[in-house]
Structures are given as structure tokens and as C-alpha cells.
Design brief:
Number of domains: 2
Radius of gyration: 20 Å
Order of helices and strands: HHHHEEEHHEHHEHEEHHHEHH
Number of helices: 14
Distance between the termini: 49 Å
CATH class of the largest domain: Alpha Beta
Structural class: alpha/beta
CATH superfamily of the largest domain: 2-enoyl-CoA Hydratase, Chain A, domain 1
Shape: globular
Strand content: 15-25%
CATH topology of the largest domain: 2-enoyl-CoA Hydratase, Chain A, domain 1
């Protein structure tokens, strides 16, 4: 996607700093240092005032770290597994086994792609049924070998094409929800970008659900909601407010457990720091959950979803 409009002052200042730094003039060091301090202050100011629609745009930012970026920085000896053993492989779902900080784990995540060819190959991060069946196959293998499962959510939603429907898209998602609910190993979910509808939830039934500060998680995209309710996708900013899809709102409703702070300027300004922060949280959560026995893990996951939401009973 194109850069967000509200980032223009930041990008202009970044460009000026790069131009001055490229001159390699020692007399400009103090000026460059002052401009970098100004840049940090500007990033903090801009990103502290974003509305829900602007946060949606940040969640979709083309330079945000993807699942593979987390794998490259946090995992060792990653072995990707392919195919659902029923139809085909789905590149929109990345799945396999690795070592995370010396502990063997399974991981599953959406993969959007960056360059045009990769985006097309990954279907822009929208899985087909075979992707969800592949994900479940890896999770069940993780259960067999006693490995915790780490899931990374970043999708606009499940692919709604005719071929996906013909192969049982709804059934694949429903089966994942049921089977993930009763996995007898720890499952930790992290929303790293856009978490859209059942396409996200199909790998989102976890003991712990984390979200990056500027990620979103919703039953439908703002554009989709606006199109259904108003027949006008231009009302998406209004729908973004109504859907309560931002991290603080989700935390308030117990939809998520932890919010991972992003660097000034959001995750795309410093992907390495963002990924490291997620890794630290995952390490703590894995250690805590591995202390529970299988039955306790299933009960913990059940109770985690039972306490979602806020409501008032009226007699």
C-alpha cells in the first residue's frame, strides 16, 4: 500500500536526514542529531493521536513485519511443511517446526507477500481451505510431540472465491475452531497486522491472545461493514470507530490478553525491535503455559474465551 497521508511530515524529515547524512560532512553532525531527535518527537506525536481508521491503515502498512520476518529473527532451524494431504499447498499459510529460544515449537501464520509476484502467490494473505487444513495438520502434529503452537495472524480474511467455497471453506474454518479448542498443548496467538473475520479466527483459538499496538482484530473489515450496512465503502472510517477493532478496545473487552508496544513510528519504522518485544512476551507465556498439564490447558483455553466481552443482564 501507499504510505499513509499522516506520515508525510515524518517521511519528509526522514528524507532530509538521509540527504544530509549522505553528504558525509562532519560539520553537519550536530544538525543531523537535532533532526533525528525532532524525528523521534514527531513520530511519537503523530502516532499518539491516530483514530481507528488511521490505525487500520497502519495495520495494513506494506512495510510491517510479516510472519516470515518473525520466523527469521526469532526461530532457529525452521522447517516449513507443505500441503494438507487432501488437495494442495496454500502459500497464504506458513507452517512448520522450529526452535524458539532453545525450545522446540510449531508455528503457523498468515503470509501476505511483499513483491507483486509473491503477493499473488500468497493470495494477499487470504487462505483457501487447504491452508487451514494444513495449519491444523501441523497443530495436531505439535500435539503429538508435545510442542507449543505459536500462531501469527495477519489476514484481511479467508478467501471468498468460488473455488474455496467448493472445497469447503466454512467447514475448514469451523473444524479448526473445534479442534484448536481441544488441543492438549499450549497455543499462543499474536495479531501482528490485520486480523479479519473467520479467516483470522481459524488459527486464533489460543490460551493467550496478543496484539501489536497498531494491529486490528475484527469480525469484518471496515470497508465490508460499510458496504453491507450503507452500501457505501466510503463510510469505512466511520465503521472503523463502530467496530471497536483497535488494541486498547479489544483489551478492554478481554478479546486480547496483552498489547505489545510498537516503537515510535509503529512496527514498520523498526521491525527488529518490534519482533524482539514479541519474542520476549512469547518466551514468558510459553514458560508459564508449559507448567500446566494437558487437561488444565484445555480448561484454561475454554475459560479464556468464556470471559470475552462485556454485557449487562436486564431482568
Amino acid at each position: 500500500m501507499a504510505e499513509c497521508d499522516f506520515e508525510k511530515p515524518i517521511l519528509e524529515l526522514e528524507q532530509k536526514i538521509e540527504e544530509l547524512a549522505g553528504l558525509a560532512n562532519p560539520s553537519l553532525r550536530d544538525e543531523i542529531s537535532a533532526m533525528r531527535a525532532q524525528l523521534l518527537s514527531l513520530r511519537k506525536k503523530v502516532y499518539s493521536k491516530l483514530d481507528p481508521w488511521q490505525k487500520t491503515l497502519v495495520a495494513r502498512h506494506g512495510r510491517r513485519p510479516h510472519t516470515m520476518d518473525f520466523v527469521r529473527q526469532l526461530m532457529v532451524d525452521f522447517t516449513e511443511l507443505h500441503g494438507d494431504r487432501r488437495f494442495a499447498d496454500d502459500p497464504a499459510i506458513l507452517a512448520g517446526f522450529a526452535h524458539f529460544r532453545s525450545r522446540p515449537v510449531a508455528l503457523v501464520g498468515h503470509q501476505k507477500g511483499r513483491q507483486t509476484k509473491e503477493k499473488i502467490r500468497c493470495n494477499f494473505g487470504m487462505p483457501r481451505p487447504e491452508g487451514y487444513r494444513k495449519a491444523l495438520r501441523i497443530m495436531q502434529m505439535a500435539e503429538k510431540f508435545g510442542r507449543p503452537v505459536l500462531c501469527f495472524i495477519d489476514t484481511p480474511g479467508a478467501y471468498p472465491g468460488i473455488d474455496a467455497e467448493e472445497r469447503g471453506q466454512a467447514e475448514a474454518i469451523a473444524t479448526n475452531l473445534r479442534e484448536m479448542a481441544r488441543l492438549r498443548v499450549p497455543v499462543i496467538v499474536t495479531v501482528i497486522g490485520e486480523g479479519g473475520s473467520g479467516g483470522a479466527l481459524a488459527i486464533g483459538v489460543g490460551n493467550r491472545i496478543n496484539i501489536l499496538e497498531f494491529a486490528i482484530y475484527s469480525v469484518i473489515s471496515p470497508e465490508g461493514c460499510a458496504s453491507i450496512l450503507w452500501r457505501d465503502a466510503a463510510k469505512a472510517p466511520e465503521m472503523a470507530r463502530a467496530l471497536r477493532l483497535t488494541a486498547p478496545e479489544l483489551k478492554e473487552l478481554d478479546v486480547v490478553d496483552e498489547i505489545v508496544a510498537e516503537p515510535p513510528g509503529a512496527a514498520h519504522s523498526d521491525p527488529a525491535a518490534t519482533i524482539s518485544a514479541v519474542g520476549d512476551l512469547l518466551e514468558t507465556q510459553v514458560e508459564s503455559l508449559m507448567a500446566l498439564d494437558a487437561s488444565a490447558l484445555v480448561e484454561d483455553r475454554y475459560q479464556r474465551f468464556r470471559r470475552m466481552g462485556r454485557f449487562t443482564e436486564v431482568i
